[in-house]
Protein backbone atom coordinates (compact mmCIF):
# COMPACT_ATOMS: atom_id res chain seq x y z
CA UNK A 1 0.00 0.00 0.00
CA UNK A 2 1.30 3.46 -0.94
CA UNK A 3 0.42 6.69 0.87
CA UNK A 4 -1.82 7.59 -2.08
CA UNK A 5 -3.73 4.31 -1.79
CA UNK A 6 -4.06 4.78 1.97
CA UNK A 7 -5.56 8.21 1.34
CA UNK A 8 -7.86 6.80 -1.34
CA UNK A 9 -9.13 4.11 1.04
CA UNK A 10 -9.80 6.71 3.74
CA UNK A 11 -11.52 9.19 1.40
CA UNK A 12 -13.55 6.77 -0.68
CA UNK A 13 -14.46 4.20 1.96
CA UNK A 14 -13.72 5.03 5.61
CA UNK A 15 -14.98 8.62 5.74
CA UNK A 16 -18.22 7.82 3.84
CA UNK A 17 -18.84 4.78 6.04
CA UNK A 18 -18.85 6.79 9.26
CA UNK A 19 -20.69 9.80 7.85
CA UNK A 20 -23.44 7.53 6.52
CA UNK A 21 -23.82 4.26 8.46
CA UNK A 22 -21.98 5.76 11.41
CA UNK A 23 -24.19 8.82 11.84
CA UNK A 24 -27.63 8.89 13.44
CA UNK A 25 -29.27 11.66 11.44
CA UNK A 26 -32.36 11.74 13.67
CA UNK A 27 -30.36 12.43 16.84
CA UNK A 28 -27.57 14.30 14.99
CA UNK A 29 -25.01 12.20 16.87
CA UNK A 30 -22.45 9.62 15.76
CA UNK A 31 -22.77 5.96 16.57
CA UNK A 32 -19.96 4.59 18.73
CA UNK A 33 -19.74 1.19 17.08
CA UNK A 34 -20.56 -0.61 13.85
CA UNK A 35 -20.52 -4.36 13.42
CA UNK A 36 -18.50 -5.91 10.62
CA UNK A 37 -21.52 -5.60 8.34
CA UNK A 38 -21.52 -1.83 8.97
CA UNK A 39 -24.64 -1.91 11.12
CA UNK A 40 -24.87 0.37 14.20
CA UNK A 41 -24.66 -1.37 17.54
CA UNK A 42 -26.82 0.01 20.36
CA UNK A 43 -24.99 0.93 23.57
CA UNK A 44 -26.20 2.04 26.99
CA UNK A 45 -24.31 5.33 26.70
CA UNK A 46 -22.75 7.62 24.11
CA UNK A 47 -19.46 9.17 25.21
CA UNK A 48 -18.74 12.81 24.46
CA UNK A 49 -15.16 11.91 23.60
CA UNK A 50 -16.29 9.90 20.58
CA UNK A 51 -18.59 12.68 19.35
CA UNK A 52 -15.78 15.21 19.66
CA UNK A 53 -13.29 13.06 17.76
CA UNK A 54 -15.72 12.53 14.91
CA UNK A 55 -16.61 16.24 14.76
CA UNK A 56 -12.92 17.20 14.54
CA UNK A 57 -12.22 14.53 11.92
CA UNK A 58 -15.05 15.58 9.59
CA UNK A 59 -14.29 19.28 9.97
CA UNK A 60 -10.72 18.56 8.96
CA UNK A 61 -11.85 16.34 6.10
CA UNK A 62 -14.11 19.13 4.84
CA UNK A 63 -11.22 21.61 4.98
CA UNK A 64 -9.07 19.28 2.89
CA UNK A 65 -11.87 18.58 0.42
CA UNK A 66 -11.83 14.88 1.34
CA UNK A 67 -15.45 14.60 2.49
CA UNK A 68 -18.41 17.00 2.14
CA UNK A 69 -19.61 16.36 5.69
CA UNK A 70 -18.57 19.61 7.32
CA UNK A 71 -22.15 20.82 7.80
CA UNK A 72 -23.03 17.49 9.38
CA UNK A 73 -20.10 17.83 11.81
CA UNK A 74 -21.12 21.38 12.75
CA UNK A 75 -24.71 20.25 13.23
CA UNK A 76 -23.46 17.50 15.52
CA UNK A 77 -21.38 20.01 17.50
CA UNK A 78 -24.45 22.20 18.05
CA UNK A 79 -26.37 19.15 19.29
CA UNK A 80 -23.46 18.10 21.49
CA UNK A 81 -23.37 21.55 23.08
CA UNK A 82 -27.08 21.33 23.84
CA UNK A 83 -27.00 17.81 25.24
CA UNK A 84 -23.66 17.48 27.05
CA UNK A 85 -22.61 20.94 28.23
CA UNK A 86 -23.88 21.68 31.74
CA UNK A 87 -26.51 19.00 31.17
CA UNK A 88 -26.86 18.50 34.93
CA UNK A 89 -26.74 22.21 35.74
CA UNK A 90 -23.08 22.25 36.84
CA UNK A 91 -20.07 23.67 35.00
CA UNK A 92 -18.34 21.54 32.41
CA UNK A 93 -19.38 18.66 30.16
CA UNK A 94 -20.95 15.38 31.25
CA UNK A 95 -19.11 12.21 30.24
CA UNK A 96 -21.90 10.36 28.44
CA UNK A 97 -25.59 10.31 27.53
CA UNK A 98 -28.18 7.57 27.93
CA UNK A 99 -30.38 6.59 24.96
CA UNK A 100 -33.14 8.85 26.28
CA UNK A 101 -30.81 11.87 26.00
CA UNK A 102 -30.28 12.35 29.73
CA UNK A 103 -26.82 12.15 31.32
CA UNK A 104 -25.67 8.57 31.83
CA UNK A 105 -22.41 9.49 33.55
CA UNK A 106 -22.17 12.96 35.07
CA UNK A 107 -18.50 12.90 35.97
CA UNK A 108 -16.17 15.53 34.57
CA UNK A 109 -13.32 13.86 32.71
CA UNK A 110 -10.12 15.65 31.65
CA UNK A 111 -9.56 13.43 28.61
CA UNK A 112 -13.09 14.19 27.40
CA UNK A 113 -12.73 17.93 27.94
CA UNK A 114 -9.49 17.87 25.94
CA UNK A 115 -11.31 16.39 22.96
CA UNK A 116 -14.21 18.83 22.97
CA UNK A 117 -11.60 21.61 22.88
CA UNK A 118 -9.94 19.82 19.96
CA UNK A 119 -13.29 19.64 18.18
CA UNK A 120 -13.85 23.37 18.69
CA UNK A 121 -10.46 24.13 17.15
CA UNK A 122 -11.27 22.27 13.93
CA UNK A 123 -14.87 23.50 13.81
CA UNK A 124 -13.67 27.09 14.11
CA UNK A 125 -11.13 26.56 11.34
CA UNK A 126 -13.89 25.26 9.10
CA UNK A 127 -16.63 27.79 9.85
CA UNK A 128 -14.87 30.91 11.14
CA UNK A 129 -17.80 31.30 13.54
CA UNK A 130 -16.64 33.55 16.42
CA UNK A 131 -19.20 31.89 18.67
CA UNK A 132 -17.21 28.66 18.47
CA UNK A 133 -14.08 30.49 19.53
CA UNK A 134 -15.95 31.91 22.52
CA UNK A 135 -17.29 28.48 23.47
CA UNK A 136 -13.76 27.08 23.32
CA UNK A 137 -12.46 29.85 25.56
CA UNK A 138 -15.27 29.23 28.03
CA UNK A 139 -14.59 25.51 28.11
CA UNK A 140 -10.86 26.16 28.61
CA UNK A 141 -11.67 28.30 31.65
CA UNK A 142 -14.07 25.69 33.00
CA UNK A 143 -11.46 22.97 32.57
CA UNK A 144 -8.81 24.88 34.49
CA UNK A 145 -11.28 25.49 37.31
CA UNK A 146 -12.81 22.02 37.52
CA UNK A 147 -9.57 20.02 37.30
CA UNK A 148 -7.33 22.48 39.19
CA UNK A 149 -4.55 21.19 41.44
CA UNK A 150 -2.04 23.01 43.62
CA UNK A 151 0.86 21.86 41.44
CA UNK A 152 1.47 21.31 37.73
CA UNK A 153 -1.05 19.47 35.61
CA UNK A 154 -4.66 18.61 36.35
CA UNK A 155 -6.90 16.08 38.02
CA UNK A 156 -7.91 13.19 35.76
CA UNK A 157 -11.56 13.29 36.75
CA UNK A 158 -13.96 15.01 39.13
CA UNK A 159 -15.01 13.31 41.28
CA UNK A 160 -11.74 11.31 41.08
CA UNK A 161 -11.72 7.56 40.52
CA UNK A 162 -8.48 7.17 42.47
CA UNK A 163 -5.36 9.11 43.46
CA UNK A 164 -3.44 8.25 40.29
CA UNK A 165 -2.33 11.01 37.91
CA UNK A 166 -2.07 9.94 34.29
CA UNK A 167 -0.09 11.35 31.41
CA UNK A 168 -2.62 10.37 28.73
CA UNK A 169 -5.27 13.08 29.25
CA UNK A 170 -2.48 15.67 29.49
CA UNK A 171 -1.13 14.50 26.15
CA UNK A 172 -4.48 15.08 24.48
CA UNK A 173 -4.89 18.40 26.25
CA UNK A 174 -1.58 19.49 24.72
CA UNK A 175 -2.96 18.42 21.35
CA UNK A 176 -6.05 20.57 21.97
CA UNK A 177 -4.07 23.64 23.07
CA UNK A 178 -1.88 23.37 19.96
CA UNK A 179 -4.91 22.98 17.69
CA UNK A 180 -6.55 26.03 19.28
CA UNK A 181 -3.37 28.07 18.98
CA UNK A 182 -3.08 27.06 15.33
CA UNK A 183 -6.73 27.97 14.71
CA UNK A 184 -6.92 31.26 16.63
CA UNK A 185 -3.35 32.52 17.04
CA UNK A 186 -4.19 33.44 20.64
CA UNK A 187 -1.17 33.55 22.90
CA UNK A 188 -2.93 32.02 25.91
CA UNK A 189 -3.14 28.67 24.11
CA UNK A 190 0.56 28.73 23.26
CA UNK A 191 1.37 29.45 26.92
CA UNK A 192 -0.85 26.60 28.07
CA UNK A 193 0.86 24.26 25.63
CA UNK A 194 4.27 25.34 26.90
CA UNK A 195 3.34 24.44 30.48
CA UNK A 196 2.30 20.94 29.46
CA UNK A 197 5.47 20.43 27.44
CA UNK A 198 7.48 21.37 30.52
CA UNK A 199 5.48 18.92 32.64
CA UNK A 200 6.06 16.13 30.12
CA UNK A 201 9.77 16.69 29.67
CA UNK A 202 10.47 17.05 33.40
CA UNK A 203 8.12 14.47 34.94
CA UNK A 204 6.76 11.94 32.44
CA UNK A 205 9.97 10.58 30.93
CA UNK A 206 12.22 8.12 32.77
CA UNK A 207 15.78 9.35 32.10
CA UNK A 208 17.33 5.88 32.37
CA UNK A 209 15.10 3.88 30.03
CA UNK A 210 13.93 6.78 27.88
CA UNK A 211 10.36 5.54 28.27
CA UNK A 212 7.46 7.89 28.88
CA UNK A 213 5.58 6.42 31.83
CA UNK A 214 1.81 6.18 32.18
CA UNK A 215 0.87 6.48 35.86
CA UNK A 216 2.06 8.73 38.68
CA UNK A 217 1.35 9.77 42.25
CA UNK A 218 -0.29 13.11 43.04
CA UNK A 219 3.14 14.80 43.08
CA UNK A 220 4.09 13.27 39.71
CA UNK A 221 6.39 10.55 40.99
CA UNK A 222 6.33 7.17 39.18
CA UNK A 223 3.63 5.03 40.74
CA UNK A 224 5.69 1.83 41.10
CA UNK A 225 9.30 0.99 42.04
CA UNK A 226 11.99 1.55 39.41
CA UNK A 227 11.79 -0.93 36.56
CA UNK A 228 8.16 -1.89 37.18
CA UNK A 229 6.35 1.14 35.76
CA UNK A 230 4.20 0.70 32.67
CA UNK A 231 4.80 2.45 29.36
CA UNK A 232 2.96 2.29 26.04
CA UNK A 233 5.25 2.63 23.01
CA UNK A 234 2.33 4.07 21.03
CA UNK A 235 2.19 7.00 23.44
CA UNK A 236 5.92 7.62 23.02
CA UNK A 237 5.29 7.97 19.29
CA UNK A 238 2.28 10.21 19.88
CA UNK A 239 4.28 12.46 22.21
CA UNK A 240 7.17 12.60 19.75
CA UNK A 241 4.80 13.79 17.03
CA UNK A 242 3.17 16.33 19.36
CA UNK A 243 6.52 17.76 20.42
CA UNK A 244 7.36 18.27 16.76
CA UNK A 245 3.99 20.03 16.36
CA UNK A 246 4.88 22.25 19.30
CA UNK A 247 8.19 23.11 17.63
CA UNK A 248 6.47 23.80 14.32
CA UNK A 249 3.77 26.04 15.75
CA UNK A 250 5.42 27.72 18.72
CA UNK A 251 9.15 27.99 17.87
CA UNK A 252 10.22 27.87 21.55
CA UNK A 253 13.58 29.10 22.78
CA UNK A 254 14.55 25.61 23.95
CA UNK A 255 13.79 24.06 20.56
CA UNK A 256 17.03 22.08 20.35
CA UNK A 257 16.36 20.35 23.67
CA UNK A 258 12.75 19.54 22.79
CA UNK A 259 13.78 18.21 19.39
CA UNK A 260 16.27 15.92 21.13
CA UNK A 261 13.57 14.67 23.53
CA UNK A 262 11.18 14.03 20.62
CA UNK A 263 13.83 12.10 18.74
CA UNK A 264 14.71 9.95 21.74
CA UNK A 265 11.04 9.10 22.36
CA UNK A 266 10.73 7.99 18.74
CA UNK A 267 13.83 5.80 18.85
CA UNK A 268 12.95 4.35 22.25
CA UNK A 269 9.52 3.33 20.97
CA UNK A 270 11.10 1.62 17.97
CA UNK A 271 13.48 -0.24 20.29
CA UNK A 272 10.43 -1.79 21.96
CA UNK A 273 8.71 -3.02 18.79
CA UNK A 274 8.51 -6.67 17.83
CA UNK A 275 12.07 -6.53 16.52
CA UNK A 276 10.99 -7.74 13.10
CA UNK A 277 10.18 -6.02 9.84
CA UNK A 278 7.71 -4.57 9.41
CA UNK A 279 7.76 -3.04 12.85
CA UNK A 280 4.68 -3.65 14.99
CA UNK A 281 3.96 -1.51 18.04
CA UNK A 282 2.95 -3.65 21.02
CA UNK A 283 0.59 -2.35 23.64
CA UNK A 284 2.68 -2.10 26.79
CA UNK A 285 6.11 -2.73 28.30
CA UNK A 286 7.80 -1.98 31.61
CA UNK A 287 10.90 0.10 32.29
CA UNK A 288 13.02 -3.05 32.47
CA UNK A 289 11.92 -4.08 28.97
CA UNK A 290 9.37 -6.76 29.83
CA UNK A 291 6.37 -7.01 27.52
CA UNK A 292 3.28 -6.84 29.72
CA UNK A 293 0.79 -6.69 26.85
CA UNK A 294 1.97 -8.26 23.60
CA UNK A 295 -1.20 -7.47 21.72
CA UNK A 296 -1.57 -4.55 19.34
CA UNK A 297 -4.18 -1.97 18.47
CA UNK A 298 -4.69 0.04 15.31
CA UNK A 299 -3.94 3.43 16.87
CA UNK A 300 -0.27 2.78 17.82
CA UNK A 301 0.38 1.72 14.22
CA UNK A 302 -1.09 4.99 12.94
CA UNK A 303 1.03 6.91 15.46
CA UNK A 304 4.08 5.05 14.14
CA UNK A 305 3.22 6.32 10.65
CA UNK A 306 2.91 9.91 11.95
CA UNK A 307 6.05 9.76 14.06
CA UNK A 308 8.08 8.39 11.16
CA UNK A 309 7.06 11.41 9.14
CA UNK A 310 8.06 13.79 11.91
CA UNK A 311 11.38 12.02 12.57
CA UNK A 312 12.53 11.44 9.02
CA UNK A 313 16.15 12.19 9.93
CA UNK A 314 16.25 9.32 12.44
CA UNK A 315 18.52 6.61 10.96
CA UNK A 316 16.13 3.71 11.57
CA UNK A 317 13.20 5.60 10.05
CA UNK A 318 14.50 5.63 6.50
CA UNK A 319 12.92 3.27 4.02
CA UNK A 320 10.63 1.31 6.33
CA UNK A 321 7.33 3.03 5.54
CA UNK A 322 6.29 0.78 2.62
CA UNK A 323 6.52 -2.35 4.76
CA UNK A 324 4.61 -0.73 7.60
CA UNK A 325 1.81 0.39 5.28
CA UNK A 326 1.62 -3.07 3.69
CA UNK A 327 1.32 -4.69 7.11
CA UNK A 328 -1.29 -2.11 8.14
CA UNK A 329 -3.37 -2.78 5.03
CA UNK A 330 -3.26 -6.54 5.49
CA UNK A 331 -3.96 -6.80 9.20
CA UNK A 332 -5.98 -3.72 10.16
CA UNK A 333 -7.99 -2.61 7.12
CA UNK A 334 -8.88 -5.77 5.19
CA UNK A 335 -10.77 -5.11 1.98
CA UNK A 336 -13.86 -7.13 2.94
CA UNK A 337 -14.71 -4.53 5.63
CA UNK A 338 -15.24 -1.86 2.92
CA UNK A 339 -13.79 1.06 4.84
CA UNK A 340 -13.93 -0.54 8.26
CA UNK A 341 -11.07 -1.82 10.40
CA UNK A 342 -9.84 -4.30 12.94
CA UNK A 343 -9.12 -2.35 16.11
CA UNK A 344 -7.24 -5.01 18.15
CA UNK A 345 -5.06 -8.02 17.52
CA UNK A 346 -3.92 -10.52 20.12
CA UNK A 347 -0.24 -11.39 20.41
CA UNK A 348 -0.85 -14.44 18.18
CA UNK A 349 -2.42 -12.31 15.43
CA UNK A 350 -6.04 -13.28 16.09
CA UNK A 351 -8.60 -10.63 16.90
CA UNK A 352 -10.98 -10.52 19.87
CA UNK A 353 -13.16 -7.95 18.09
CA UNK A 354 -16.63 -8.40 16.62
CA UNK A 355 -17.14 -4.72 15.85
CA UNK A 356 -15.29 -1.53 14.90
CA UNK A 357 -15.14 1.50 17.22
CA UNK A 358 -15.69 4.99 15.83
CA UNK A 359 -12.88 6.37 17.99
CA UNK A 360 -10.20 4.86 15.72
CA UNK A 361 -11.09 7.13 12.78
CA UNK A 362 -9.44 10.13 14.43
CA UNK A 363 -6.11 8.25 14.54
CA UNK A 364 -6.46 6.81 11.05
CA UNK A 365 -7.33 10.09 9.37
CA UNK A 366 -4.59 11.93 11.25
CA UNK A 367 -2.06 9.50 9.78
CA UNK A 368 -3.54 9.94 6.31
CA UNK A 369 -3.21 13.73 6.58
CA UNK A 370 0.40 13.57 7.70
CA UNK A 371 1.37 11.10 5.00
CA UNK A 372 -0.20 13.10 2.21
CA UNK A 373 0.66 16.60 3.34
CA UNK A 374 4.00 16.14 5.04
CA UNK A 375 4.51 17.10 8.68
CA UNK A 376 6.19 20.40 8.04
CA UNK A 377 3.95 21.66 5.26
CA UNK A 378 0.49 20.69 6.42
CA UNK A 379 -0.82 24.19 6.89
CA UNK A 380 -0.23 25.25 3.31
CA UNK A 381 -2.83 22.81 2.05
CA UNK A 382 -5.36 23.47 4.80
CA UNK A 383 -5.14 27.23 4.80
CA UNK A 384 -6.16 27.45 1.14
CA UNK A 385 -9.72 26.66 2.15
CA UNK A 386 -9.82 27.81 5.74
CA UNK A 387 -12.21 30.67 6.27
CA UNK A 388 -11.42 31.52 9.90
CA UNK A 389 -9.58 34.82 10.44
TrEMBL record:
UniProt-recorded Gene Ontology molecular function terms: isomerase activity
The biological process GO terms on file are: carbohydrate metabolic process
Q: Name one Pfam family in it.
A: GlcNAc_2-epim
Q: Which InterPro entries match?
A: 6-hairpin_glycosidase_sf, 6hp_glycosidase-like_sf, AGE/CE
Q: Which UniProt keywords are given for this protein, alphabetically ordered?
A: Isomerase
Q: Is-annotated flag, keyword Cell wall biogenesis/degradation?
A: no
Superkingdom is Bacteria
Stored Gene3D superfamilies: 1.50.10.10
Similarity field: Belongs to the N-acylglucosamine 2-epimerase family.
Name of the protein in question: Mannose-6-phosphate isomerase
What species is given as this protein's source? Komagataeibacter intermedius AF2
